[in-house]
Amino acid sequence: MVFTAIGALALTGCGDEGGSKDKTGDGAATGGSSKPSVTLPKLDGEKISVAAVWTGPEQANFTKVLDEFEARTGATVTFVPAQDPIVNFLGTKIAGGQPPDVAMIPQVGAIQQAVAKKWAKPVGAEAKAQLSKNYAKVWQDLGAVDGTQYGVYFKAANKSLVWYNAKAFENAGASEPKTWKDFIATAETVSASGVTPVSVGGADGWTLTDWFENIYLSQAGPEKYDQLAAHEIKWTDPSVKDALTTLAELFGKPALISGGADGALQTEFPVSVTQTFTGGDQPKGAMVFEGDFVSVNIAQTEAKIGTDAKVFPFPAVGADSPVVTGGDAAVALKDGKGAQALLTWLASTDAAKIWAEAGGFISPNKALDAAAYPNDVQRKIAEALIAAGDDVRFDMSDQAPQSFGGTPGKGEWKTLQDFLKNPKDIAGTQAKLESDAAKAWTS
What we know:
By secondary structure, the protein is of the alpha/beta class. It has 20 helices and 12 strands. Strands 1, 2, 3, 6, 11 and 12 form a 6-stranded mixed beta sheet that branches. It is globular.
């Protein structure tokens, strides 16, 4: 799932703290750190365009980041609204002779496509220096193709979170589980209190891929995860059987899922969240699994994050809790000083701090002080992402060819929807996944 397609990320109570920064134009923003963390060139009169799929608060907050770049360099930056899938949008722009200077690309596979089509330009020395200083190796590798750096990951998502209705938990006498075994036991405890424990947005197949990926990463480990993501091992591998067997411990108990399997398959992701945080202590589901972007849907209810709506890490199936992530990388599509300077800026701590303070944002920049985040919930989510270091793994379905990992009604999305309906057919599910994957990787 491409998390940027969900909509704007906005935690309740996370407005622009203190308003827009006073721009000095001398390389540092007043009200921020007195000394800039990055040196940028003077670009007076230069025009730079940046394409991204962000809208609403996301676009507004990204614009603040671009405004500060303008103040420090003298360049003029234009935001170009893009549509998903962004590769198709960029293809149209490039065919028309009007590519943006930089594009924010939300999939590893899309970066690889941009490189294969010879659209992308390698990252320059200054931006690479910022990456080396501020990013774990895994985030650098995600933006590289065949050893050459093309992408600068600016925005990330922690997709390994379970959000819960605090009142429903309190009434049931339930506590936050740390392991998968505890998670199932907690679900049974909540169920015994008269509330269905788990809300699943099964109408959107990407949510089911995220369930699988978190279980697989924790149970099989990062190396196996990388192999399956690259289709270096088959979906008929015993490790996939183990993960599906674990997932069936939940999917095989319809009483634990809001509406049962049939109801879940008719529930779209936004509803899976809002029905968890409406109805007071008698919601349709007490827990919902998904990333930090759940906050935007909670904001559509009367629930307050941190009091009514709380969060815990995805339970550990193996030794550790998994951290699956998504993200948006800046990729230069034109040669030039301006595009490279913008990549350098986006790789800096100063740029990350601006959006972090505004809220609705997680940075993969390990040098960013967690104090920049506007509340404890978002700080905790960001710290978990950074603490995972090189063990963090990018969304597996977003690394796959789109026909397998990103198409409604087809491939992995469809097969896991079928599995939700019939979780006993583990062998048949594996065979179908492998058949579809084999076709996708050879086409």
